[in-house]
Amino acid sequence: MLDSFLSDVRFRFRAIFHRAEVERELDAEMRFHLERESEKNEHRGLDAEEASRRARVAFGGIDRFKEDARDARGVGVLEMVARDLRYAARGLRAHPGFTFAVVATLALGIGANTAMFGVVDRLMFRAPTYMRDPATVNRITLAYAFRGKPLLGGSIEYRRYLDLTQGSTSIETSAAFYSDKFAVGTGERAREMRVAAVSSSYFRFFDAHPVIGRFIDSTDDAAPAGVQVVVIGNTLWKTEYGARSDVIGQQLMIGSMNATIIGVAPAGFSGLEALEPVVAFVPITTYAYLTLPDYAQNYDWGWLNMLVRRKPGITVAAAERDMTRAYIRSWEAERAISPNNPPVVAARPHVLVSPIHNLSGPDRGREAPIILWVSGVASIVLLIACANVANLLLARSFRRRREITVRLAVGVSRSRLIALLLTESLLLAVLAGIAGIVVGEAGQGLLRVLFLPKTTTIGVLDDFRTILFACLIAFITGLLTGLAPALQSGRSDLTTALKSGVREGGQQRSRTRSILLLAQGSLSVFLLVGAGLFIRSLQKVAAVHLGFDVEPLLYVSPHLRGQHLSKDANNVLLERLQAQAGSIAGVERVTQLTTVPMWQSMSQSFTVPGIDSVERLGHFNLQMATAEYFRTMGTRIVRGRGFDSTDGASSPRVAVVSEGMANALWPGQNALGKCIKFGGDTMPCTSVVGIAENIKANDLIEDNGLQYYRALRQSAPRDAVIFVRTHGDGRRLAETVRKVLQPLMPGSSYVTVTPMHDIVDPSLRPWRVGATMFLLFGILALVLAAVGLYSVIAYDVAQRTQEFGLRIALGAHARDMFRMVLGEGLRFALGGIVVGALIALAAGHWVQPLLYEESAHDPLVFISVAAVLAVVAVAASAIPARKAMRLDPSIALRTE
Amino acid sequence: MTDTPDSGKLELPQGTLDLLILKSLSLEAQHGWAISERIRQVSSAALQIPQGSLYPALHRLERRGWIKAKWGESENNRRAKFYELTRTGRHQLESETDAWRRLTVAVRLVLEMR
Question: What is the ipTM of this complex?
Answer without folding.
Answer: 0.83
